[in-house]
């Protein structure tokens, strides 16, 4: 960080090598870096629930969720929540026809 004009600290963007060092630092601490990446984009309910459970143990869960909301992530498990079309949903529906009573 550098000092701003009023004595405040200003965050500097990470360089490519600093970003790589961060990845190496968090690799063993962050479940999405040490498990199958496809787990966070699974279609099966059991796999989605597994990803959400792993997220609950993650030290970065709050920041991950906030970032995903800010970016309106189109889909996947982010910060322990399921995103569909950029919106957090309680439960992801399986593929196929919608239920008949869904229109009512």
From TrEMBL:
Its cofactor is [4Fe-4S] cluster. Keywords: 4Fe-4S, Cytoplasm, Disulfide bond, DNA-binding, Iron, Iron-sulfur, Metal-binding, Transcription, Transcription regulation. The keyword DNA-binding applies. [4Fe-4S] cluster binds at residues 32, 55, 58, 64. Binds 1 [4Fe-4S] cluster per subunit. Following nitrosylation of the [4Fe-4S] cluster binds 1 [4Fe-8(NO)] cluster per subunit. It is found in: Cytoplasm. GO terms for biological process: cell redox homeostasis; negative regulation of DNA-templated transcription. One of its GO terms (cellular component) is cytoplasm. Its main location: cytoplasm. It comes from the Bacteria. PROSITE patterns: 4FE4S_WBL (PS51674). Residues 31-88 form the 4Fe-4S Wbl-type domain. One of its GO terms (molecular function) is 4 iron, 4 sulfur cluster binding. Upon Fe-S cluster removal intramolecular disulfide bonds are formed. The Fe-S cluster can be nitrosylated by nitric oxide (NO). The keyword Iron applies. Acts as a transcriptional regulator. Probably redox-responsive. The apo- but not holo-form probably binds DNA. Belongs to the WhiB family. This is Transcriptional regulator WhiB. It comes from Sanguibacter suaedae.
